[in-house]
Structure prediction request, 565 residues.
Amino acid sequence: MDSEDTTKTCDTKAVEFVPVKIEEHDFSKMDIKPRTLTVVDRHKSCEIRALYDLFGAHAPPHLSSIQDSLKNLDHLKIAENLESVPPSRMSSPKASTTSQIQAEAWEALRQALIYFRGRPLGTIAAMDHSEELLNYNQVFVRDFFPSALAFLMNREPEVVKNFLMKTLRLQSWEKRIDRFQLGAGVMPASFKVLHDTRRNTETLIADFGESAIGRVAPVDSGFWWIILLRAYTRSTGDSSLADTPECQKGIRLILTLCLSEGFDTFPTLLCADGCCMIDRRMGIYGYPIEIQALFFMALKCALTLLKQDDKGKELLELITKRLQALSYHIRTYFWLDFSQLNDIYRYKTEEYSHTAVNKFNVMPDSLPDWVFDFMPNPGGYFIGNVSPSRMDFRWFCLGNCIAILSSLATPDQSDAIMDLLEARWEELVGEMPLKACYPALETHEWRIITGCDPKNTRWSYHNGGSWPVLLWLLTAASIKTGRPHIAKRAIDLAETRLPKDSWPEYYDGKLGRYVGKQARKFQTWSVAGYLVAKMMLDDPSLLGIVALEEDRQMRPTLTRSSSWS
Ligand code: GLC
Prediction:
C-alpha cells in the first residue's frame, strides 16, 4: 500500500496566531537575502557589512579585526558581485562566482537528489556504486540538513519544503520494534522511495530505528527537522508552512517526547548509545553533548515557530523553563577549561548534601592523562557527557559547534572553544577538517566501550576519524565568533583533497591523512558541507539562516572559570 495512504489525518482546526515576541537584537531577523544587498559603504566588503548587521550593537569585541583578516581572502567579492539575478530553479550558480570545485560539488549534489512523484524530495546519503549500498541509498534526515542549507542558500527552497512535509507524514506512521510501539513524535532516521516499475507506483519506506544497526531510534532527527523548519522560514520569509496545523502538531509531538515528566534529576535528555550522528556504540549513552546541544537549539527554534494558541501555550511555557534549566546545567557542569580541570583534579569525593562541591561524585582518578596536555590556556570546551560519577572528557565537534551556533555557549565560552580549536589545530584538524571526536579509544578501552567494533577502530570512522561534513559547522562557528580566518584555513585544506579523493565520507589517521577504511565516495553531506561552508564564507550574512542570537534572559551568572557550587 502507498505509504501516504496510511498516514493519519492531521488536526486542521483553525488557530489564532499571536506572534512570539522576539528580542530587538535578534540578528536572525535581519535581511539575509544576499543578492538584494545594497552597498552603503563601497570600501567595505559585503562580508564586513553583513557581520555588523548580524551582530549589530552586540558585535564581538574583535569584530573590527575581522576586516583586516577578510581583506586577505583573495576570493572576496564586493557587494556588486552579489547583486545578481536569482539563479533559475535547479540550475548551477553563476559560473563567474563559482570555482571549478564548487561547480563539481553542485553537480554531485544535484545527482544525489531523489524524486517522489515527480518532485524533488531529498538527497541520498552517498552516490558510491562501488561499495555495498546498505542504507546509503536512503535519505537520512541528519544528512539532508547540509544539503537543505545549500539549496536554501542558493534560493532553491522547493526540495526543502517537500522534505519537511513528507517527513511529517512519515512521523504520523505507527512505529514498532518487535512488539514495542515507539512514541508518536519520533521522526525517521532515513527513508527511501520504492519504485514498482510493474505497477508504476512509488512508495516511501522509512526507518525509525527498527532496521538500523543496533536498533536505536534517532533522537537527533526531530531536532534537525525543527531547526530546518526554522531555517526554511527564515530564508524564504514564508511562515505559512510552519504555521500549518500539520507543522504545529509535528513540533508539539517531537517536543512532547522530550519534555514529559519522569524520574529525571537533570534537565538534559537521557539517551541510548548511537542515537545521533555517531550511530554505533561509542560510549555516548547517557547525556551526550551532541543531543543536548541540538535539543537546546530545537527548543529555541520552537519558541519562534510555535503559535501561542491553546495547544502551543502550555508547551511554550515548558520550553521556556526547560531552556533556562538546560543552559544553566550545560554551561556549568559540561564546561571544562584550565581552571575547571584544576578544580576537578583536586576534588574531594563522597560529599553529601547541598553543600557538595563535587555534586556528581566524580573521581579525580578518572581524569584521563591526555586531557592535561590537551587543555590549552586560554581555551575550553563542553565535554562529551556528564552523569553520576562519570565525565566523558572527550571533545566532540558537532555538539561544541552547535552550542556556538545556538548560543548555548556564552560569548566567553564560544571564544574559548575557538581558542582551543586554534591551539589544538593539529589534533582536531590536522590534514583534513574535522575530527568528529578526540581522542580515539584504543586497546582495552576500545574493546570495552565499542564492544570491539571493527568499523570504529582507533582514529577511524566515529572513533577519531575526520568528517568533511563538519566543515560547515566549523565555518558557521568561526563566522559567528568573528574568526573567519579559521574557516578559510580549513576550507583551503579540504579543497586540496576532497575533489581528488571523490568526496569521501570520512578520513582516517591521527592527522586525517588517509581516505577512511570503509568510507563511501561521493558522500552527499561531504559535498553539501563544503558548499555551505564556501557560501557562508563568501557571504557571512547567510549565517542568519542557521545561527541563533544570545537570549539576554539566559545569561549565566557564572563566568567560564567559576567552579561548581
Ligand atoms: C553513518 C553515519 C551517520 C550517517 C549515515 C549516512 O552511519 O554515522 O551519521 O547518517 O552514515 O550517511
In short: Residues 456 and 463 are 5 Å apart (CA to CA). Confidence is low (pLDDT under 50) at residues 1-98, 557-565.
